[in-house]
């Protein structure tokens, strides 16, 4: 799905190119008539229409480039969903296992035994911190769980939580690497998107200003105003901006 930035630019490009399609002929005819008396004998009529239609094609070409860059960025963001879900699921499972091990050791063998796990404060929730903490706890759990019981009859079997932690950690580590890779790729597509939009906006301003000026020159004042570039929104016509924020409502 195209971003809002592309949708607004598409509507604006459509307005400008439609104005060119409809009015290129009349612009050429009227302007050549206006300057006819000022032309030198060896000068040919100006091909206003040909130039305008070429500018319209140039606008479309730059828009298609920006649209492709925008779609690439949108697709890349969708690719991030699965790695992030795997990261969050395994971080939760590992965090729960760490909490279970800490609590079991503390209740049955005391805080000194829990301290052997090397965890200070609350069990972390940030995935990267969960991974580091889990890698620290896993090789220490057997020693901590072998400390003397605080009271006869107390019992805690660390094996299930230890197995859960051992299973979650490599999956979490792999998911974190995938997320990092996807973020890097998304960053590249985002830079390309911004560069493509900026290039398009420059071309749009050139074409829309030219079309607006020529429409005004032949007396199409309202249409000239509508296709004029917005002063506040790059790549957008005045008409499209007014659809978003009607005059007097800002």
Tags for this model:
250 residues, mainly alpha, rod-shaped
Summarize the structure in words:
- The protein has 250 residues and is mostly helical.
- It has 2 domains: 4-81 and 197-244; 93-182, no CATH class.
- The protein contains 9 helices and no strands.
- The longest helix has 59 residues, at 159-217.
- The mean pLDDT is 93.
How would you state the average pLDDT, rounded? 93
Structural class by helix and strand composition: mainly alpha
Kindly report how far apart the N and C termini lie. 29 Å
Q: Report the portion of residues in β strands.
A: under 5%
In DSSP terms (H or I, runs of 4 or more residues), the helix count works out at 9
Kindly give the count of domains: 2
Concise structural overview:
This protein is mainly α.
Please describe the topology of this protein.
Elements: H1 4-35, H2 48-79, H3 81-109, H4 111-115, H5 127-137, H6 141-145, H7 159-217, H8 221-227, H9 238-244
